[in-house]
Amino acid sequence: MINVQELMSTQLYTLYPHQTLHDAHDLMTEHKIRHIPIVDEDNLFIGLLTQRDLLAVSVSTFADISNSERDELETGIPLSEVITYDVIVAQETTSLLDAARFMLETKHGCLPVVNAKGELKGILTEADFVNLAIVLLEKMQA
Length: 142
Known about the structure:
By secondary structure, the chain is α+β, with helices and mostly antiparallel strands. The chain has one domain (4-141): Roll (CBS-domain). The chain is 38% helix and 17% strand. The protein is built from five helices and five strands, in the order H-E-E-H-H-E-H-E-E-H. The strands form two sheets. Strands 3-4-5 form a three-stranded mixed sheet. The chain has a two-stranded antiparallel ribbon with strand order 1-2. Strand 3, helix 4 and strand 4 form a beta-alpha-beta unit. The longest helix has 16 residues, at 126-141. The chain is globular, with a radius of gyration of 17 Å.
């Protein structure tokens, strides 16, 4: 059985709950990611901020304000006020097939992976499955 640990991304980009929407926006833009796990100082998983969450609470680009005003507004909103706390997570030993089925059925774009202590160990995303599909398709063509 292949488990989540074998496919999950371990290069994690995380933020703390006291950081701001501005920090999240910058991190997503810089690393071209759509999901940010939120952790505490001990790397315990607290919640998740998705690109959709960020868009829902951000000031519209159609608003009649300057970029500096938009940045100032986003800098004043801590992530603790906008993140999703009730997040389904996987263990490192979770079956990859079970994780894939869960993500497809629930339309979740990612699945944070934690150990028994609740420490964030990785994140499984749709992109990880696309990369797996590419590898398998290339092997089938060879």
